[in-house]
Amino acid sequence: MDVRNQYIVSEFVLMGFTNFWAMQLFFFVYSSVLFLAIILGNSLIVLMVAFDSHLQSPMYFFLAQLSFIDMIDSCMVTPKMLADIFRKHKLISFGGCVSQIFFIHAVGATEMVLLLAMAFDRYIAICKPLHYLTIMNLRVCISIVVTFWTIGISHSFIQLAFVIKLPFCGPNKIDSFYCDLPCFISLACTDTYRLQFLVTATSGFISLGVFFILIISYFVILISVRQHSSGGSTMALSTLSAHIAVVILFFGPCIFDYVWPFPRWPVDKYLALFDSILTPFLNPIIYTLRNKEMKVAMKKVGEQLLVVKRGEHEILYQSCDPTQDTFLL
After folding, report:
1. Cα–Cα dist 152/249, whole Å
2. Closest CA to 112 of 247, 280, 278, 276
3. Which residues contact 132 (CB under 8 A, 6 or more apart)?
4. Which H or E run contains 173?
5. What is the DSSP letter of 53?
6. 142 SS3 class
7. Is the peptide bond before 263 cis (omega within 30 degrees of 0)?
8. Strands 173-174, 91-93: parallel, antiparallel or unpaired by DSSP?
9. How far is CA 299 from CA 37, 176, 235, 288, 309, in A?
């Protein structure tokens, strides 16, 4: 039987944030500015890591992966949200809704595993510095990247495998600005208690478990450093503080949304905005402002841009100088 024949609902209505024009304008300006900053900031990090020889280390390799994932995360939801803010009828097709759910969970799970890999990388760098480049060689880094993308995509496929055949026969209003699994399941015309428990187990408890594993791993690193060096704990804390900030920013909304996903609360969609816009915006700031090598690389990029602009001005001046014998055709 064709799966599509089971569905009466072919599209969903996104309720968005609010119907007040002033608040819509605020969310539009706020989201547009942050979205542009996300794309520019994370793209700059990826390019600097790729082309700056001083940033060719596993830590920056994983940082570039995080920036790439943040760009994907923001692009999955934000453009559609910006296009819908001033629309009276915010519609999304059934296929579009399912696609959003798939990519949100794939990228979210991928980022969770990436943060674990980054914590492991910091543990090796701080606690076993002499063996760091031997353990975290290029082959290992590529294997880790393949692993966390495989886990993220597999997690999302497993989630959708249990809900894709749900019957939707009536309600089609989603009280959010995007499609997510709890909202999607709550509209099904059948008993979804087991699926609700599945979402809580696979997304909520896993998020909570990974969060505690990361926090514990950071404490282990700090304790290990303190045992080997009395003055090293301050430097280690400074190094890990950026990672801890990213972990809290990322896992906070995830835990709130998925540990108790049913019933849905009005604050859930604002936390989702925080997770899809603010966290990808803050990640480049956290890493670049607290990292000496990244700041040096950014300074070099800025100096190169100034040299290029200065050269362009000199060429323009010479071409407009009437005392010169050369003319522009």
Report:
1. 19
2. 247
3. 58, 124, 125
4. strand 173-174
5. G
6. helix
7. yes
8. unpaired
9. 18, 41, 23, 11, 15
245 token code pair: 């900030």
**Residue 106: Cβ-neighbour burial (10 angstroms; 0-12, 13-18, 19+):** buried
Q: How far apart are CA 50 and CA 53, in angstroms?
A: 8
- Candidates 284, 247, 301, 248; CA nearest to 60 is 284
Contact yes or no for 198/140 (Cβ under 8 A) = no
- How many helices and strands (H and E) does the chain possess? 12, 3
The pLDDT score that the predictor gives to residue 110 is 92
pTM of the model: 0.82
Strand 11-14 versus strand 91-93 pairing type? antiparallel
Give the integer Cα–Cα distance in Å for 275 and 249.
7
Handedness of CA 66, 72, 74, 76 (dihedral sign): negative
Widest distance between CA atoms in the chain: 85
> What single DSSP character describes residue 17?
S
Residues contacting 297, CB < 8 A, separation 6+ = 48, 52, 54, 55
Give yes or no for a contact between 84 and 17, defined as CB atoms under 8 angstroms apart: no
- At residue 18, the pLDDT reads 74
Please identify every stretch of the chain with a pLDDT value under 50, giving residue numbers as ranges. 1-6, 324-329
Quickly tell me which residue has 């800025």 as its tokens.
302
| Whether the Cβ atoms of residue 131 and residue 124 lie closer than 8 Å to each other | yes
Determine the Cα angle at 128 with ends 122 and 130, to 5°. Answer: 120
pLDDT of residue 254: 80
- Asked if 17 and 177 touch (Cβ cutoff 8 Å), the reply is yes
Cα angle 255, 173, 7 (rounded to 5 degrees) comes to 100
Alpha carbon distance 125, 224 (integer Å):
12
Q: Which helix (H) or strand (E) holds 14?
A: strand 11-14
